[in-house]
Amino acid sequence: MTKILRMTLAASVAAFTFASTPAFAAPTSASGPNGLATAHAKIVKPLSLESVANMEFGDITVQDAGLATMDNAGAITCTGGLTCAATGTPAEYTVKGTNNQIVYITKPNVTLNNTANPGTPLTLVLNGHGPTQVLLTNSGQAGLNFKLGGEISIAANTLEGDYNGTLAVTVDYQ
Fold it and tell me: How confident is the prediction along the chain (174 residues), in pLDDT tens digits per residue?
């Protein structure tokens, strides 16, 4: 019985020693078209955005609630109880950056406040009026101009006065 125990113990120690010995692999490198990786970086000029013209809806007469809408060419339409001029001035910007790059335009809503007769502000909606992206066709000083229109929903009880706000338009590469 002592002999069997010694043999079992010796076999266990040998198995443990073999199992705990680390395996070493020979170093290898990637080979073939699927084993190699590449790196790429594209350097572009920083974007600049300059305001060329302010948006001007002109005078709007309110008999009842309605919507004043200007397209990016400056044509104005009024619905409901609003009367307005046929044309205005859309906002215009120049964007400069790297040639042949797509630039996205972000156009958040604008709060218009009545400076002389404070009351309920109006909201100028820019989305849906003018481009959401442009392709820069040249690099350098010339840049590319784009225009934005917008729409203002006006309640029947809107106070008279000048309503002003700041357009926070931004641009970014694709």
Answer: 444 334 433 444 444 444 555 556 666 666 666 778 899 998 999 999 999 999 999 999 999 999 999 999 999 999 999 999 999 999 999 999 999 999 999 999 999 999 888 889 999 999 999 999 999 987 667 889 999 999 999 999 999 999 999 999 999 998
Single pTM value for the model: 0.77
Residues 88 and 174: their CA atoms lie apart, in Å, by 31
149 Cβ neighbours under 8 A, 6+ residues apart: 55, 69, 70, 71, 72, 73, 74, 90, 91, 126, 129, 130
- Give residue limits of the domains in the chain: 48-173
CA distances from 23 to 12, 19, 20, 41 (A): 20, 10, 9, 39
- Residue 79 has φ and ψ, to the nearest 5°, of -120, 170
